[in-house]
Amino acid sequence: MVRNPYFDNAKYLAIVLVAVAHAWEPIMEGSRATRALYMAVYTFHMPAFVIISGYFSRGFTARPEQLRRLVSGVVVPYLVFEVAYTLYRRWADDAPWQAFSLTDPIYLTWFLVALFLWRLSTPLWRALRYPLPVAVLIAALASLTPGIGQDLDLQRVLQFLPFFVLGLSLREEHFRMVRRRAVRVLAVPVLVGAAALAYAVAPSLRMGWFYRSTSAQELDAAWWAGPVATVVLGACALVLTAAFLALVPARRTWFTVLGAGSICGYLLHGFAAKAVPYWGLDATYGVLLTPWGRVGLTVVAAVGVTLLCTPPVRRALRWVVEPPLEWAFRRPDARCPADAAAPVTVPAQAAVSRR
């Protein structure tokens, strides 16, 4: 399957934004500018990932080969890194009480649970006449429903669902539209304006709205604020995602090859990001809380996640993120028409921020 350099570029740039935002998280208090940038990035970086994931899930029909790929590329990495991050927190954060749980995703592993559930539901969304309005309604209802609980991080799964469904509805020409010259020209002032707006509201707006992991009531807001936030933040996310995608180069660049390894960068960078709060590095090294310290940490995060996306790291982690599981599944039976007729090509795995 020929890879499209545009999407590899988008995935790499998006994972850099994820890593940088995670690096800002423990050091942004006391810096209105850092908090504003964090808020602006959080508005669209995960929606962009989810939209791309939905786009590459359009062909998912639950064929046997696709289910095997779903297990090897999503379920296995989730199980491995759920255990790894639990052990890491027990050790680095001196938190022996941190329980192992298959249903309560820790930190960034929530995205793998969400991707698994979204992709399994793809045939349903493809069958509906008006899938996007239905998904928005579900997200709005979730935002005003406290007590969904931590199981499978369903609050976040449901609130991000519209972006996945939107990705399922997109075609290649839609991405060509956002790369038109007029859109690219507008993208820069849109992103700058978003940063300025974030700076204006940074002191008063709670970040919980952007994480989409809690209901309105749990954020001490009126119940109706949940659906309103779903629509308003969703619209902002779409505008900023379009601006981001407009600026992504369509040609092959030096970082195009890194897009294929963005899943490695996503899963591994969290260990470095969590080292700062777990080990109290921000308190020990006060320089991290200075402007130059924040800039330095930003550069380190961007360079670090870039290295984690390189082909050698991808090859080293293949046993986790792309394990060969032929031994675990029955071979397609020639006597079974469903298996015999199933094509062997599958859509490319779209790689994927706060717990």
Percentage of β-strand residues: under 5%
Structural class: mainly alpha
- The termini sit apart by 33 Å
> Which segments are poorly predicted (pLDDT under 50) over 5 or more consecutive residues?
337-355
Summed over residues and divided by their number, the pLDDT gives a mean of 90
- The helix count comes to 18
Shape descriptor reads globular
Tell me about the biggest sheet?
Answer: none
> What is the N-to-C order of secondary-structure elements (H for helix, E for strand)?
HHHHHHHHHHHHHHHHHH
Rounded to an integer, what's the Rg over CA atoms? 20 Å
Total strands: 0
Please give the share of residues in helix. Answer: 55-70%
Protein name: Acyltransferase family protein
Keywords: Acyltransferase, Membrane, Transferase, Transmembrane, Transmembrane helix
GO molecular function, one term: acyltransferase activity
Transmembrane segments: 39-58, 70-88, 100-118, 130-148, 154-170, 182-202, 222-247, 254-272, 292-310
Describe this structure in words.
This protein has 355 residues and is mainly α. It has a domain at 29-249 and 327-341. The chain is built from 18 helices and no strands. It has helices spanning 5-24, 32-55, 64-92, 110-120, 122-127, 131-143, 154-169, 172-178, 181-201, 208-211, 225-247, 256-259, 262-278, 281-284, 291-308, 311-316, 318-321, 337-341. Helix 3 packs antiparallel against helix 4 and helix 3 packs parallel to helix 13 (262-278). The protein is globular. It starts with a helix and ends in a 14-residue tail after the last helix. 40% of the residues are buried. The model is unreliable at 337-355 (pLDDT under 50).
